[in-house]
Amino acid sequence: MTRLLRALPLLAAALLVCTSAPAAAQTTAERDPRFTLDAASARIGDTVVVRLYDWPQGVVTVRVCGGGEYITSSDCAATDAVTIAADENGEGRGLLTVTAPPVGCPCVVEALDVTGQYRAVADFTVEGVPFLSAEERQQRIDERNPGNAVRMLTVTDFRLRDEDGPWWRDWRTWFALPVRRTAELTVVNTGIEPVTDPAVSVAVGRGDDATTVVYPPRIRELAPGQEAVYEFPVDLPAPVFGSSTVRGEIAGMDEPVVFEATATSWPWGLLGTGALVAGYAAMWLLSGWAVSALRALGRAARAVRRLRGGRRRPPRGGADTAPLPTAEYAKPR
To answer: Any transmembrane segments, and where (predicted)?
Structure first.
């Protein structure tokens, strides 16, 4: 009985963990980022209070945008935007100074996180900014959605970015070893309906042969006119020599959506090492040949000297050799 009573707190703690984990997962899955303003309209130069709720922890950018439908970053007053830090509870507070957007109203206040995956907008009237006419708004719609596509995503930019760090960070590419790059995909919803979780496929390969599957990014939800940037890792297969192609496709749209980027790298370290080895080998071979040639020349020179010395040496005997005269001396008596 005593053991049972001692085990009850442990059982209660285990039940609390088991019940709280699904709740936390559900809260993360059902995240609904939003914000409120203390005013629905303001003049240029006024300040409004922005309060964030249920955002991912991090930095949220808040700015004034114009243009009505199909708002992109070029329609917003990006230089006068304010950044607000969202805490672990997803809440934050900041002050936004109202400025005129690059295009006319209808205007909104837009808030989005650093990845662009979470976004919220609120209608806002900027006093003193003229409204676009019906013809101008229709012209914007025709330019940004010429085929009147219902479900349409447009890739405005796709690139492979090198890793940040010192100059020697890419030492693996010097020797054609596998290397990781960061792919940056910028997508805009140019349709007239929100797009949620479309199927994205990405592959990588040497040259134009992109056949190795890459784990793709997840496009959660994009409202009409919303722009988002997605980053995901791409491993370039070995040997990393010449060009590598990363090709992707977004399925389920009214029109095909294909994006592609190319990275070029050369194994200068491998080539330099090969050149050094070849140079040392050539020096070794040439030095051996030079020693052999010098030795042969020395032997030839000695042989020539012996021959010349033999010709100059007089013979030891013969008819032409005369004896040396001798002197006789008389002994005194």
So the answer is: 266-298
What the block records as the tokens of 314 is: 């007089």
Q: Using alpha carbons, select from 34, 135, 123, 115 the residue that is nearest to residue 71.
A: 123
**Rounded-to-integer distance, Cα 39 and Cα 84, Å:** 18
Question: What digits encode the pLDDT tens for the residues 220-243?
Answer: 888 888 888 899 998 887 776 677
Q: Under CATH, domain 153-266 is a member of which superfamily? A: Immunoglobulins (2.60.40.10)
Q: Which two tokens stand for residue 151?
A: 């479900």
| pLDDT tens profile 139-173 | 877 777 766 677 889 899 999 887 655 555 666 66
Identify residue 299 by its one-letter amino acid code: R
Enter the tokens of residue 58: 């991090």
CATH class of 30-144: mainly beta
Q: Map out the domains of the chain as residue ranges.
A: 30-144, 153-266, 268-303
Please name the residue that has the structure tokens 């993360």.
28
State the Cα–Cα distance between residues 149 and 145, nearest whole angstrom: 7
Q: How many CB atoms lie within 10 A of CB 244?
A: 25
* Cα four-point dihedral sign 193, 199, 204, 209: negative
What is the total residue count of the chain? 333
Count CB-CB contacts under 10 A for residue 44: 13
Whether the domain at 30-144 and the domain at 153-266 fall into the same CATH topology:
yes
